[in-house]
Amino acid sequence: MLLLVGAGHSYAQQLLIRGRVTEAATQKPVPFASIFVPGTTAGATADAEGRYQLNTAPADTVVASAMGFTPIKKALNRQATTQTIDFALGTGAVSLNEVVVRPTENPAYAIMRRVQQHKPQNDKQRLDAFEFDSYNRTEISINNLPDQVARRKVLRQMTAVADSIGLERGADGKPVVPVFASEMLSRYYAHQRPIRRREEIKRNQMRGIAPREGSVVSQIMGSSFQDWDFYPNWQQLLGKDFISPIADGWKFTYEYELQDSVYIGDDFCYQLAVTPRRSQDLAFTGTIWITTKSYALRRVDLRVSSDANLNFVDQVKVWQELTPTAAGPWLPLRTRVVIGIRPTSKSTGFMARFTTVNSNFEPGKYHPLEFYDVPMETAADAFKGEADYFDKNRPDSLSVQEQKTMMVLDSVRKLPSVRSFLEVATVVVSGYYRVGKIDVGPVPAAIGYNNIEGLRPRIGFRTTPDISRTWAARTYLAYGLRDARLKYGLRVNRILDRRTWTTIGFEHRHDIDQVALLDNDYALENPLFEASARLGNITNGRPLLRDLSSMSFQTDLFRGFTQKVTLRRQQFRPLYRFAYYTDEPEPGAPTEDNFNASEVVVESRYAPDEVLVQSQTQNYRSPIGLKKLPVFTVRYTLGLKNFLGGDFSYHKINLIVAQSVRLGQLGRTEYTLDAGYVPSTIPYPMLKAHLGNQSPFYNAGAYNLMRYFEFVSDRYVGLRFDHYFEGFLLNSIPAIKKLNWRLVATGNVLYGSVDQANNEIIPEIDPNNGQPLPRFQPLGRLPYAEVGYGVENIFRVVRVDFIHRLTYRDSPGARNFGVKFSFQFKL
């Protein structure tokens, strides 16, 4: 019995060894070094920073070794249960005899086929539900500072702080200035069928030049919604689709080399080198480790080739370690990502480092679907934790340089020049300037000009949650120096329930608008086009003075399904020659040039996979992430005659379907299907004026060779699409691929018509002066059609489209061919 007790005690006693492996000459970490106890199976592999942890029975010696270094042995203390042993390895050389291997097949291919066979059992998508705790750290710094930039006041002061604390400079001797860091602790929940995600942010701390606490940016910075998952075929990174090294079509994109078989923790793994077959493709190069038992992805150490067709990206590195769950599939345990942005080789660059550590995995834990209706929720006290909270609760340790970085950031935020810079940056991003508890702006709209109003000064403001978290208001005043008219607008919203985003709103606006732009707000997505359409000569758009008063109610019935009801009254006073028959449409009958409309608008919008995040510093919510499924919008408008002065009774029905379809290596297609029907008799300003484009700028929401107000319809179906080939085709042409140009293709088709009654309601002769009245043109039996092709990414920012008009080529003033430009900043 004594022997058994003694044996049990000896078996239970364990020795924990931890430490770091570095190079003796440079003190830099030796990543993935092997640490083992001689004569036993106990061993461990260091991480990318050279840190390791090893559990073993009591022993006398531990050894550290790595390729290209001389192994080192160190003695252990059998009495201490926890010991810290650091190794500094010196360089060494190993001479090997020549070995010739002649396989019938690349052995890595056989491994990759088994990876594909085992993907269903290893992929976390097989789990119906899972959740875990997540720690995220984000660090952003500026590097490669030219001398003229480094001498600027803000950066000069920040560099002085960094040097005084002892922060290392870059390899080029130039300062590396940290500008921002954040740490976040959250609980992440996932439901697979249907796909639902939720993240509860428990604590968030920001240092340096940080966004306003509680803003949408501050909440998503470091969020676990940035999911690095290599099991799907495509990894979405920087808005692009990168093919995974374990994708179904792995052999067409990658070449593989079996390099070694090593232990990672307790898992014996194959070590495979991966390289893209074409360096310009959006693919990875580096190393992956595959377990020999379950053929699961155990670790990745990947980077994006510098030749990849990306703009402004200097480097992308991803290191990830995965762990199995009790249910079988593997989940990411640690992830480190480095992204470098530099417009040119000589310009200032930005370096972003992201670290994620996940723990407390619970597979198979279910919650009701309504639990996921709020995809991201931030605790009320998330930004109010004590200053040393993360020092006590951080699941990993900071390096010496990271500790110094945090000290620098705590100091620079107190500099007056940095505070001034933050205020300017806020204006650039949001367009508003914070004054006390209100925001003044938008600043870019302070001055405008057009041929009706002349010079147009404008001032506006909006409230903030510092005044109220349930009420939001914005207003503006503008004055035209030529027309001597005062314009104004006021919008007030009351948030009744943030969880379902139930709101009521009131709006009143008195301003100049254009018939050509009515009901086309969703299409004004190009700021250059919008400025061109609303400024300068707006006569072609048929300007009018518009008074709008409305009340609205909105709520989410369930996630992604939003309902909105609006009661509104509009008064239209055209600023061009216009008239319509108020009785029988015949010469000499009474006419009028002004009209009123009273309407009830019911709108349903369904975006099943849209993620909306609520701002805590503004009373609004914003979409984040990419949507894969189409978004449906159905709108019904009922016109009420004699109610609130309405002149007409009518019906309008509108359906919009929009989607961005990702096609992998073939690129991405964005399309919009827009259909409408007005089975009533009303003046043409209330029908559908299809959005033309006489500006030199391309607009995906317009018909780019159609003139302003060229066609009007009361029933129509339109399809618009843009296809982005990314680097497909051009990446394979030797002389062209170095330019990183990308092909685009576009097309617009529109069927439409106007009922005879809507044509006859407009007199041919102006009753005031006997001159012919400007009329409108409906489409005939032939659809309007245009197609285009072009090249984007010229000089990284320019897109040029060549467009051909296929129908109505003989219409007066028609342009059958056009070249449109646009400017875009895309990676």
- What low-confidence regions span 5 or more consecutive residues with pLDDT below 50? 1-12, 213-220
Put simply, the count of helices is 12
Helix content: 10-25%
State the distance separating the first and last CA atoms. 71 Å
Q: Quote the beta fraction.
A: 35-45%
Q: SS-based structural class?
A: mainly beta
**How confident is the prediction overall: mean pLDDT?**
84
Q: Which of globular, elongated, flat, extended, rod-shaped describes the shape?
A: elongated
For the sheet with most strands, the description reads: 18 strands, antiparallel
Radius of gyration: 32 Å
How many strand elements?
A: 45
Can you describe what's shown?
The protein has 827 residues and is mainly beta. It has twelve helices and 45 strands. The strands form eight sheets. The chain has an 18-stranded antiparallel beta sheet that branches. Strands 14-15-16-17-18-19-20-9-10-11-21 form an eleven-stranded mixed beta sheet. Strands 1, 4, 7 and 8 form a four-stranded mixed beta sheet that branches. A hairpin with an 8-residue loop joins strand 17 (297-304) and strand 18. Helix 4 crosses helix 8 (400-412). The longest helix has 16 residues, at 107-122. The chain is elongated, with a radius of gyration of 32 Å.
What characteristics describe this protein?
45 strands, 18-stranded antiparallel sheet, mainly beta, 12 helices, disordered N terminus
Topology at a glance:
Elements: H1 2-12, E1 15-23, E2 34-36, E3 43-45, E4 51-56, E5 61-65, E6 72-75, E7 82-84, E8 87-89, H2 107-122, E9 129-143, H3 147-150, H4 153-165, E10 177-191, E11 196-208, H5 216-220, E12 234-237, E13 240-243, H6 250-253, E14 254-264, E15 267-276, E16 284-291, E17 297-304, E18 313-324, E19 330-341, E20 349-363, E21 376-378, H7 389-393, H8 400-412, H9 416-430, E22 433-435, E23 438-440, E24 447-450, E25 454-463, E26 471-480, E27 485-497, E28 502-514, H10 527-534, E29 543-558, E30 561-574, E31 580-581, E32 591-592, E33 595-606, E34 611-614, E35 621-624, E36 631-639, E37 650-662, E38 668-677, E39 688-689, E40 712-713, E41 715-724, H11 734-737, E42 742-753, H12 756-760, E43 784-794, E44 798-805, E45 817-823
